[in-house]
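Notebook p. 47: complex prediction with glycine.
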Amino acid sequence: MRVAILGKGGRENALVHKISQSKYVEKVYAIPGNPGTARYAHNVDISLEDFMSIAEYVNNEGIELVIPGPELPISRGIKDFLESASSAYVFAPPQESSFLETSKIRAKEFMKRNNIPTANFHSFADFESASSFVRGYKKYPVVIKADGLAEGKGVVIAHSPAEAVSVLYEFMVERKFGASSSKVVVEDFLEGLEYSVFIVTDGKRYKWIGDASDYKKAYDGDRGPNTGGMGSISPVPFLTEEMRRITEETIIKPTIKGLETEKINYVGFLYFGLIWTKNGPMVLEYNVRLGDPEAQVILPRLENDLISIIEAVRKGTLGRIKIKIKPEVAICVVIASGGYPVSYEKGKLIYGLESVSRDVILYHAGTREEDGKIYTDGGRVLNLVMIGEDFKTVSDRIYNEVEKIRFEKAFYRRDIGDLTKFNL
Ligand code: GLY
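Predicted complex, structure tokens below:
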């Protein structure tokens, strides 16, 4: 089988790596890919916005399966388009079902209708009603979320009515995120421990393929601005079997049942952003894709051939699949460009890639190759992943390796895998 992965980040490098290990796969393509995906796949320089050229390429090459990494092509209907314009099967939900990630309001209403625990919320489509609501609200802090996609920057915690009004003004009047922030959700702030669970589903059945915690803030000790993720670990260190069972019973099963009863046609990965509160687990958000950098620790621990799982989804036999996850733990450390996530320079020559130990899985994110040399080309540049017996051992080993990689103004968090933030 010929398989194409869409995207060019670390998550897509992890997907390409995993798919290249499948016994069913003859050739892997990365559209557009990066220098890391080029080690396992044929990179194809087509923009993800150009659905027509992707369809043409898929047809010419006889590609049978396409797996989109990021949410954008999914939300723009890559499944609907490619499945009608080519003979490929696209492992992702159709555009209409991507509302679980692309509209916070619709996702919250779905949760409410299906009794899925989540923070109390109110949604607004105009600034006057939203600001009058937050002025009169008594329970601070509140969380303000742009309704649409905002590259992970559309969620702000406001500690006072004045702060909330100012965020609403930026979002709804100044349109900080364009149409994405013309509507908002205002919800109660939840206290607890955050974690993420990843499933594959055909909309009726599901399999838990892994869980992870990410490190969202830029600097050690969870300080600084929010980023796409500066590192991740798997499994979630505080999640006991009982907590996992409760997560399945109160969140995952009602979500799948909701999809089925509401006749929402869903297929693909589904990512649950969760928080364990004093009242049990609650949903912070759904994403219709794998996380980045969570995929980088989930996929290397998954023992199953990913193609067997996807084929089972396709044939309606997912119930027969037994998921096997390695008992070892995994850590991913992201090396970023100085100044990320605000502003950073590109084009810095990267040294030391060849001296990294063979035990490290090295994924590229924002890099580019020129004349055999690798340069930085984004905010999150490289991901180092290691697997081992326990978080302490793996963390010590991975930081020895991270130090071997150098480029001007490189930075990374030094506390990925440190469990103190989980009170463990
Ligand atoms: N790491 C967070 C995300 O992928 O949305």
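Notes: The two ends are 45 Å apart (CA to CA). The first strand starts at residue 2 and ends at 7.
Next step: compare against the earlier run before touching the bench.
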